[in-house]
Please model this.
Amino acid sequence: MPQKLFLKTFAYVPRLAISLIVENKKREVLLTRRAIPPQKGFWHMPGSFILKGESLQRCIQRIAQKELNLKVNPKSAKLIGVFDDLHKDPRGHVVDIIYKLKINAIPRQTEETEETKEVKFFNKLPSLIGFNHGDTLRGLGYK
Model:
């Protein structure tokens, strides 16, 4: 679907997305800095809208591969919950399914992508977090 048409769908229906809480052994959370609008330059959890015909497990694999260059077993992802973002995504209403993955380190081959310009673990959340991700992470006990 062309991007322009996809953005128009927000006027009619909520969009379903998956976001990943990626944590290391120190319980630091991995965030990525957006390289594209909306909220370019803000930190956020790796994530994506679920594509038509795509299973939840395949979406988890796609996000991990595309944004972090990680090959993951989606069965190792733990469902954390389902969260509403009614107002913090400028495109419109998003329903976010959040899963948690544990990894040891950021892969060396993680590079900037079209959508991500930086990947970093945080033991203290940065102030500039996009969408509802800061509220969600703080609500889950991250500081």
About this structure: Residues 6 and 85 are 18 Å apart (CA to CA). The beta strands are 15-23, 29-34, 43-44, 47-49, 78-85, 94-102, 116-122.
